[in-house]
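pinning this so it doesn't scroll away 📌
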Amino acid sequence: MKIAGVVCIGLIVIGLAIAVHAYMTVVYPIDRAIGYLNQAQTAGSPSTMANYMEQARDIIEERQGNPCWILPTESTNWDIIKANLDECIQYARNMAS
């Protein structure tokens, strides 16, 4: 009975470690990028807006393809999101100059 309890606790600890690692490597960076984009929405100048959008773009740089494999759409495709963000950054830079 003691061995089963130790195994059960071990599995729970391993599961928690996997969940924390997945959050830190997948969810948290995306949440940070969303935060930068929210800051860009409330920025007082086009150059500040572009800076926030560039920080968000840097975070999602290595992501590609469509993570939504069940019902993929253009709004969940990383490549399209990055292209749209690049256009917004360029537009903001043009407005600032």
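📌 and the second one:
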Amino acid sequence: MWPPTYQSVKATPNRYPASVLNTATGPVTLIIPWGGFHQSSHKAGPIWDPEIDKLIVGNVLDGLNPAIKIVETDAHINDVKFSRLAADEMLELLGVE
């Protein structure tokens, strides 16, 4: 049970449009963590809803600039696996080997 001061807002499918990502002036990589996008969004979490996550991702991808690299992972956003992937992608964007 979460303490009474804990609040969490579940994103809705139309909340994060591709137009925000499309405004980038440099290279962009979008990493999609299918294992969960939020600390409470995991298989046993109170806001776990993979169907909503698919709708949100679909909305983001719809109209996304094709120059934007998309990387998908089964990791949760707070997993070490995700962190390593994000760091590797950042190093690639920076041209660091």
